[in-house]
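Lab channel / #folding
Pinned by the channel admin:
"Please post every new chain as: sequence first, then the structure tokens as a reply. Keep commentary short and put observations after the output so the thread stays searchable."

First post following the new format, from NK:
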Amino acid sequence: MKRYVASHLKDMNRKLVYDLFVSEHQLSRMDICKLTDISAPTVLKIVDFFLRHGLVAEAGEGVAQLGRKPQIYRFCPNAAYTVGIVLEGKQLMVGVANLLGELKAERVLDVTELMTPPVRIDALLGEALIDEVTATLAQAEIGNALLLGACLAVPGQIDARQRVISYANALGILREPLDVGAQLAALEKRLGCPVLLENDVNASAVGELMLRQAKDASVQDLVYILMADGVGAGIIVDGRLLRGRQHGAGEIGKMVIDRAEEGTDASQTLSRQYHTLRLHATDALCAQDTQRVEQVADELAAKVARAVAHIHTVVDVPLAVVGGNVGRKLGQPLVDALRKYVRLIHPFPIQCVPTVNPTANVIGAAAIARAQGIEVFFVD
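Reply from TO:
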């Protein structure tokens, strides 16, 4: 059994009160005591800690029927920031978010030249990345505010702990895993904060959950279907991102959709079929052929619907969100077709909807960095 340390309780109490300020924005010490059951002396120490670090500020006196009026404290979301970095398709997207996940600045860099095979991974995750992050921070004008961390989300299977991209077709990483520790360390040195590695679809799922919970706190489960250069899923169950022991949760591109054709050993995975249909979709969109766009969207939805149904069968997630640059361009015809095919092949209701915000991926990457950074911040 892990040995109990009194400081653990202190850190947990600080995190509990912090989460309360994030949701309520303004509180008195008495409010905190009532809502958390934390003792008044402990709440006093926590609020003083937050005041010293600029996380809260005095906001005047509250109302009291009898006795002394309570001091109100307001949350200061611009006390600290995180950076979300996402590589999607041929674009490098960077955003700077405050403690509420609000983007204060965002930039998009076209990296088509660097992504054209053979992919120049050193340049892509080296100078180009550092320059774009530096420029976005300057645009955000955060001044002397604390930078808690950054998160780089890439298309492919990753090992965040080892800082390795295990497999990423879009980056040309097919057989030999790529260690990106040196590139992340260089960015850490420039920023002066930790830099995490994450899967791009996972970041999108986290961002989508944040945005939906801002309107409806009861949302706890969703699957984010990303359709970009490749296809993948980010799965959230009970408010927690499902990564898997080998970091492969949501790799729906590897699902076998159709059996191998007679005389061959090549099973028809979703990724193979998606690649062909994505090219057809690109051609139809470029030609502005509306009828062909709807036809391709229908064909694509018929394939992806199987993956959505399989995920629901295993983890019972009733909300499927469609995102990614291909998903956004195909738009409502794709979502409508997905609903149609899911209803045809699955007995339980699954709500299929488009993403609420195309920057959910950047918001999610920043949120992943913030979740780790704030935990470290609360430890003395």
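NK: DSSP finds twelve helices and 18 strands in the chain.
TO: also worth noting, The first strand starts at residue 26 and ends at 28.
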